[in-house]
Amino acid sequence: MRAVAQHPLDLVSRAPRTCVWEITGACNLRCVHCENRSGDAHPRELSLERMLEVAEELRQLGCRMVDLTGGEPLMRRGWQRLARRLRELGLRVALVSNGLLLDDDALSEAVDAGVELFSISVDGLQPVHDRTRVWPRARAGAPSPFELAMAAVDRVAGRLPLRVITQINRQNVHQLRELWELLCAHGVDRWQLQLAVPEGRALDHDEPYVIDPRELLGIADFVVETRGSGRAPFIDISNTLGYFSGHELALRTRTTGPGLWLGCQGGIRSVAITYAGKVRGCSAMPAAFDAGDLHTESLARIWGDAERFAFSTRFDPALLTGACARCEAGAICRAGCTAMAYCVGGSIYENRHCLRLVEPPTAPDARAET
Question: Under a CB-based contact definition with an 8 Å cutoff, are residues 1 and 317 in contact?
Fold first, then answer.
């Protein structure tokens, strides 16, 4: 492993520029991969008054963008007031939804409240999506979750910026090209791909649900190829895919310019709030990473204690193990996505879902850049 005198994240000011905020645990579906097992509203959900106070704290801490999610955020009474207050405070607001409640009235309310972006989950072609995003009870004759999600996609497209989110798993990994063609036809602007993490309901399957690491290269090849086509939607990859492979620059490049993986930013540049009021560095992290409780403390106090986010603020590359310890990019990469590394292997110091591990030696090589 090549030594790094000072990591790039040590040179930036700690400020939660982005926040993923689960405003309710209530959901009208029972998705088979749900990280937090959403269903019923949680008894410790923050009151609307408390959420409005937290919104002010986010502004004071330097937050710029908030993703309101759940559960299903449109099931939380008062979501419009929270979104509007965040906009009044100068923050950008996105809504992350399964699309089932996104009718014309809900969309108009979102626009009036200042929502700038809608993210709608589509987890495969219709049979796979409907096996993934499941009604809590049979609804004979009702439109399927897939039909409602695509109707929401069509309703939003052209009125607000639209991002479709797909969580890649063993059931849909071979449908990506067909799904891309479908989203092209429906006028989607951006498509975010993220890997299913082994937590929550994803652990309840009899058969393996999270993809085999050997499938990572095919996903990366697909992303690079489709980006090169010049057709919308533009594909964004989440922090779960990478790192420092021959495809690194091609995968991390955004519409705003080149990108490079520089380690988990949870607790440094991002924060997450769970539907029970717990604060974490990232929404994909399990309860082991809880840094505080907004029922008993202010967000400023929780965030202000960097030791509570020691997984990133005090990351020690000398503790890397396995392939990460031997990797020349290890000290910069910091074992990739912390949530994936921890949920797969029980440690933040080794990531077994790394693209670099399965890349053939003859692949285009960007390693000199590291």
Answer: yes
The DSSP bridge partners found for residue 190 are: 163, 234
**Over the stretch 295-321, which tens digit does the pLDDT of each residue have?**
999 999 999 999 999 999 999 999 999
Q: What is the pTM of this model?
A: 0.94
Do the beta carbons of residue 358 and residue 331 sit within 8 Å?
A: no
Average pLDDT, integer, range 270-291: 97
Closest CA to 21 of 111, 82, 62, 108: 82
Assigned token pair, 31: 């998705």
The side-by-side arrangement of strands in the sheet containing 270-273 is 234-237, 190-195, 162-168, 117-121, 92-97, 65-69, 18-22, 270-273, 278-280, 292-293
* Backbone torsions φ then ψ of 267, nearest 5 degrees: 80, -5
* Predicted pLDDT at 141: 82
d(CA 167, CA 89): 32
**Region 163-177 average pLDDT:** 97
Q: Residue holding tokens 């053939």? A: 360
342 burial type by CB count under 10 A (0-12 exposed, 13-18 middle, 19+ buried)? buried
CA gap 268, 246 in Å, rounded: 27
State how far the alpha carbon of 163 is from the alpha carbons of 21, 226, 264, in Å: 17, 16, 22
User: Computed over its alpha carbons, how large is the radius of gyration of the chain?
Assistant: 20
